[in-house]
Structure formats: C-alpha cells, structure tokens
Amino acid sequence: MTLEASTAVTLFMALAFVGVHLFVGRLRFLEKTPRSRWLSFAGGVAVGYVFLHVMPELAVHATTFERATGLDAAAAEGAIYALSLLGLVIYYGVERAIVSSRGERRPDAEPSDGVFWLHIGASALLVAIIAYLLNHREDTSAIGLALFFGAMMLHFVTADFGTRSTHTRIYDARGRWVLAAATMIGWVIGLLVELPQLAIGCLFAFVGGGIILLVLKEELPEERRSRFVPFILGAGAYSLLVLAERTAHQFS
C-alpha cells in the first residue's frame, strides 16, 4: 500500500471513530435493560484485541525497552507490563471519582462538572493515542490494520455509550466534540511525528490497561445485567479471525 493510500485509509478510519463519538446517542437500540447484546459483543471483541494483539506486541516492545534502557530481560518486561497496569489504575481512579462525586445522591445522578471534565480528559487522551496508533503499529499489514480498526470501533461504541450514560447532558453539548477533536489531533500527530519504538511500546501498554478496565467496568456491575453469551461470542469471533489471519500469513 502506498503512503498516499495508507493515509487515506487511516483518515477514513479516524473519521469513522469521530462518527461514533458524535452519534452514539442516536443508537437508541443500545439503551435497554438487560444490557444490549451488541454492547456485550463489542466488549468481548475489545478484550480479545487486548489479549491477542496488544499483549503479544508488548513482548516484542519489551526487547526494545531492554536495549534502550540497559535493563535485563525480566526487568524490561516488568516495566512494560507495569505501564499497562498504570493505564488500568488511572482509569479505575477516574471511575472512583465519578462514584465519589455522586455521594449520597441517587446512584444514577450525574456527577459534578469537574468530574465530567476529568472523565472526558482521560477519555480524550485514550482516543488520541488510539488514533495516533492508526499510523504507527507493529503489525503494518492491511488485515492487521482492519482488525485493529474493527476492535477499536466496537470499543468506542461501548466506552462512549457508557460515558454518555454517566454525563448525558454535558456529553451531548460538549463532551462528544472534545472526543472528536482528540481523535483528529491524535491522527494528525501520527502523520507528523514518528515516535521511537520504545515510546510506541509504552503507548500500547498504557492503552491495553485502559481498555481492560473500561470494558470490565461496563460489563461487570450487577445493575448492567450484562450478557455473558454475546460477550463470549465477541471474544471468540475476534480470536478466530486473528488465528485465521496468522495461520494464513504463516503459509503465504
């Protein structure tokens, strides 16, 4: 794929992400209890992506980290996975801030405006990194990019639906535009700035931890009445696609 074609493809993907941020509120079929099967399916796909793409790639980046820092193999690998844990912890902290902001009010009450901007800021950082990685990934094949795009599209549907459910009023007025802008900023930076492989590995680790927390946050609470079978189907279907792609690549 030529540079111009690759840029056009990743631009289309970034714009598709923007479409999710702007119009997730119009997907009325997701707003029901028990939880929509599609949201649980999307969560399974996102988790499948983390364990079948992000985690294996972290092992590759651990080698880069080892060479760049002079650490031994075990220490370098531990440092990379610690960054993934950091991503999980940061996004867990944001979720705890939302719960604390509600205090003694109704559990479904909207948090304070300050907590909203903390939540949107953390989400904007994550979407900007993901948009950046459209142009800088370890797996540069067309199929690898398509799998990344599909998994992240479904992840954004799940994450944005959850964010909008928490802050409906401000999300519709301002929050969705912040996420859309963060997506395009991340994509443009990806075109203009090529970070060292060490830094890209760190970004992958951070994204993986954040996605794990966000997906489990949406699926685990009892009041969500989440769908286990669609979640398993999503993870299984994505796993089969990845394994088929890798098998085909091996024999090509």
Could you describe the 3D structure shown?
- There is one protein chain.
- The protein has eight helices and no strands.
- It has 252 residues and is mostly helical.
- Helix 5 (142-166) crosses helix 7 (197-219).
- It has one domain (3-24, 36-251).
- The protein is globular and about 50 Å long.
By DSSP (H or I, 4+ residues per run), the number of helices equals 8
Rg, alpha carbons: 18 Å
Q: Which percent range fits the helix content?
A: over 70%
Overall geometry comes to globular
Secondary-structure element series: HHHHHHHH
- Model regions low in confidence, pLDDT < 50 over at least 5 residues: none
Main sheet makeup: none
How many strands in all?
A: 0
Strand content: under 5%
Mean pLDDT: 81
Name the structural class: mainly alpha
Q: What is the distance, rounded to the nearest whole angstrom, between the alpha carbons of the first and last residues? A: 18 Å
